[in-house]
Amino acid sequence: MQWYQGRVREAVVSTQSTGVNGINVEGESHAKVIELIKSNPNKLRMVLMSVPPKENERLDGESVSYCSEDEFELNKVDITIPSMSQKDEGGKTVVYYNVYLDGKFLCSHRYKAFYDLQVDLKNKFFQFEFPKFPGKWPFQLSQSQLEKRHKELEQWLIHVCTVSQLFTHFYLQDFLGLINNNRNDEKADQASICSKNEPDNADVKVFLPDKSSVCVNIPTESYVKELNEAICQKVNIPLDSAIYFSIFKSHDSDQFEVPLALNEKPLELHVQNYNECGSLKFTFKKFVFSNRIENVMCEDNACLNILYQQAVKELADKKFDTTGKEIELKRTQHISTQKEFLDVVHTCPGYNTVAFPHCACDSRRDGHVILIISSEKISIQACSQSGEKQDQIKNFAWPSVSDYGCDGEIFHFTISKSNSERKISLTTPYADYMLQCFDRVTESHA
User: Fold this and answer.
1) Which H or E run contains 421?
2) pTM of the complete model
């Protein structure tokens, strides 16, 4: 009799029983049909008719989805995997991928949990054309391979979650931790256990001036000082030289690099901007204005290498004036030592100088100004409201600065001359960066 039961379950996926041994079973459950079949083990006469696939949802067990590709509805969901975390499990370091919805943490899962999810979804929604899923790899992944898998998993998850039928299904809702699941599943995989707690650490990718990158793992609540020191250790820079470097941030939409404020948390900042403004790029750079300090830093080879990388990039970006130095710079960059190249760069006007984007100034009614900071002076270049430079420029020596500070997006400094004082206020989103620059120059003059 087992043969009949198996055949009936197989057949009714595309047909419906209307009669068993002369008894009308239209509208009856699958269990009732099986009961009638078992009632006469020696004889079976069935009347079947074809039905639409969706009618088979009355069968015992879980049904599969019969949506055609055109019937799947698209839905905008802000879901991302902005970071990876590391956990020690059984003496082995494993990687978890941290999933966020609308900028808020949902869950962390290992690759295997993602793999199992895509298998379940493909079996359930067999007519849907799923995006390519990152393949398995039998060996330990390198950092670049981990980053590639990270991006591919994120793209796969984003694609899947934009389909309403997939996003609202139990499989995906349970994976994302959006369902209170109290089942005691003895087969629960460790990849999905303890995945609802916000990670206590995460990997941060930071670029170096030559566009290469390093990845460090830091506690989630770390401030910029901890990240800066972690990068120094990664590239073998002595910790007592860490004060001469900083982590700079830039957006896809704004390439002007700004150092992180001391009270900013890099991981928190990364997640916020990952959802709101696209990707946020961190770069490890020197943050000094004095050639004298650079010469001291050059005594360490790791520091010298970063200084050289940054000088080469600034040369390519035309950040300083190379008039009359072109041949010497080219020769020392490709033939001489890094230190000899930096010695030539130190003679170029505009090196170790920061020129800020134009902004409003209280002393100009019909135009903006460009603030330029160097170790020797402070310059205010007049310009139009669109940033076109004008002839007027005022220079102030550092000894004439008696006070400075910032309040929100207003940076101000006071110039003292001949028993008189003049306060200059600039309105700019880079007020904190200006404050940090003034601090750095003042410390170098001490």
Assistant:
1) strand 420-427
2) 0.74
